[in-house]
What we know:
Blueprint: H1 3-15, E1 21-27, E2 33-39, E3 42-48, H2 57-68, E4 76-80, E5 85-89, H3 96-99, H4 105-122, H5 133-151, H6 158-177, E6 180-183, E7 192-193, E8 201-202, E9 209-212, H7 215-221, H8 230-246, H9 254-281, H10 292-304, H11 310-318, H12 321-329
Helix pairs in contact: 5-6, 5-9, 6-9, 6-11, 7-9, 8-9, 9-10, 10-11, 10-12
Amino acid sequence: MSDRSKHLKQWLDKLGYRDYSLDRASEDASFRSYLRLKAGDGTLIVMDAPPQKESCEPFITVAKKLRAAGLNAPEIIACNLDAGFLLLTDFGRDDYLSQLNPETQRSLYTEALAALLVMQTSISADDLPPYDEALLNQEMDLFHDWFLQKLQGISLDQQQQANWHSVKQTLIENALAQPQVFVHRDYHSRNLMKVDTQNPGILDFQDAVKGPVTYDLVSLLRDCYIAWPPQRVDQLALDYYELARANALVDVEAAQFRRWFNLMGLQRHLKAIGIFSRLNIRDGKSRYLEDIPRTLEYVKQVSAGENSMAGLFSIIEQLNLSQRIAAQMTR
């Protein structure tokens, strides 16, 4: 038994848990991991966040915000901030990704979008970190540094570098021009749980910020883990635009909102591709490589249809990035 496991056992013993079992529930792209505690007929979730790597306090802060707004975030049963342990209510095993299909997607997305509207209209983000130029730029550099340079072994030439810097500046300006609201920052099918009441159960919100109104929307609808027909995505985005406008979240025409949505998706997907690459190279989590082709396809589709992203599309085409990653996946 590791020292950390011993500390966890000692903490659970102090809380009065005796006859229980612990099984791996999930782990995410950070240093956090999750265990399912089964005691009698019930289950709880233990969040293990090594304090030298992750802080539990943002999770607690945002959980309180979500629950105060009437949304279904886990209840915190007990916490040990010094050790980095939280004991949480359990939403079960059915995440959106496992439950989404052509028959269920309408109802599941309707409920997820309703929850998103509550987040954006009812939760103050003024005390959260800003999604500012520095953070947006840092995230996009993950694509350059980890995907292009380290995973693909590519160095951009002078013209490609100029294109890349122009693309980043346009995407930053697009993000900052939007109304700034509460942003979950990872609102997608692996972090939404299908539950019987007050659906969805919302997870992995500790990195919430104050940022662009379209960020969580594009995270959900152009999900890195599951893709839907572009026409369906466009219709859902337009439906949400109508809700957002009716609730005074935005005051622009649909065409402007759609451009915000498309360019925001590029920023997020470039970041995600970089993160997937880093998870493989640095952390040995190779399973995330399989999500790069889907995410890169979003980038190609949007950049091909957006004049300001011609430089990004040319980089993808000139470097044969789709073919490169496809070849890597077959090795």
